[in-house]
Amino acid sequence: MKSIAGAMLPKWIFIIMLLNIAYGILRPRNPFQRTSHLSVCMKFPAYLRRNTQLCESVKETMLGLVLLNGTRMAILECQKQFRSRRWNCSHDTRSIEAIVSYGYKEVAYLFAIQSAGVAHAITTGCHMGMFANCQCKSKKKRRQRKLAKHEKRNLHYKGNIYDWSDHCLERAISYGKGMSRKVMRNDKVRDVRGLVDRHNKEAGRLALTSMELGHQSQCKCHGISGACHLKTCVRKLPDFRDIGRFLLQKYDSAVKVMIDNKGTKLLPKEKSFEHHTSTDLVYTDDSPDFCKANVKTGSMGTSGRRCVPGDGKLNSCSILCCDKGEEKSFVILEEHCNCTFQYCCDVHCEICRKNVTSYTCK
After folding, report:
1. pLDDT by residue (tens digit) across 17-68?
2. SS3 labels along the chain
3. Count of Cβ atoms closer than 10 Å to residue 25 Cβ
4. What tens digit of pLDDT does each residue of 163-204 get?
5. pTM value?
6. By the 8 A CB rule, do 283 and 105 touch?
7. Contact at 8 Å (CB) between 322 and 86?
């Protein structure tokens, strides 16, 4: 007895369909796509893979590379801002995996700068047209651009002309913050730590558009012989170095918090403190002094760190070395000097050596 499919279709078509189905089931999946996804995912630090949705969000190679670039940019900026402090944002596996299990101020900065780095990278990619689902241009923008060009002289505001093209950046920032909110979320933690991490990640995203940060526009002067009679200004995405400094200020003024009785709201631990704002960093655990190495708390210690003689600075030997003293050594530094240009077209330099005094913590 013939099957229903065989009765409805010619025999040769039915056979081809079966072969296609079998080929689709048995053929190996694209190894490049699978390897690409896993390789990008494994390049994220373990604490980000565990506490965010980064790996789950990496479906496209381009998005994965942008996210990876944002997280790496954040790590470098964190290490730049903390290079002179006892905790220097070391991403040694033993240290970083231990420290993120606590609610320290340092962890608050770490998650804030990572969230800001992801938002900044995605915003930049969107503004450059790298994502198909991020449409920077819109009909509203095109109408406004024509209006601005047609009535340019009537768009004065405090002596400036504001180009309507900054609407593109607004849409890109909105997209970047929204994607960062999606990929940096952690649905596994629902206690006070979850609220704290969620708040600090959002504070990092808000740094992209915070009025406290400044540098939100870039202006060009117009006038005869360079006279600045009129300025055309466009909105500018803040430099990530400025965001890192801004969040460092928030780190220095971070607020210690606790959870309310309902378990849904963060309150200042000390009643004398004002309630934190959406751009403030918050924490729950007092940080150690990071003077001595401690595997449990993630402290690497300061032994062997370079310092400068004197007092007052964060990287001074008295502060960085925790009053344990420092060792003085002399290093011979070689560098090019007395360079001369010879026609044509060589540059000849001498090698100069000088003694440099170096101080390291005991």
Report:
1. 555 555 544 444 444 344 466 788 889 999 999 889 988 888 777 888 899 9
2. CCCHHHHHCCHHHHHHHHHHHHHHHHCCCCHHHHHHHHHHHHCCCHHHHHHCCHHHHCCCHHHHHHHHHHHHHHHHHHHHHCCCCCCCCCCCHHHHHHHCCCCCHHHHHHHHHHHHHHHHHHHHHHHCCCCCCCCCCCHHHHHHHHHHHHCHHHCEECCEEECCCHHHHHHHHHHHHHHHHHHCCCCCCCCHHHHHHHHHHHHHHHCCCCCCCCCCEEEEEECHHHCCCEEEEEECCCCHHHHHHHHHHHHHCCEEEEECCCCCCEEECCCCCCCCCCCCCEECCCCCCCCCEECCCCEECCCCCEEECCCCCCCEHHHHCCCCCEEEEEEEEEEEEEEEEECCCEEEEEEEEEEEEEEEEC
3. 7
4. 445 677 888 899 999 999 999 998 877 789 999 999 999 999
5. 0.76
6. yes
7. yes
Q: Quick: pLDDT tens for 194-253.
A: 999 999 999 999 999 887 776 566 677 776 666 676 776 767 788 999 999 999 999 999
Q: Which tokens go with 220?
A: 């060009």
Token pair for 265: 């709201």
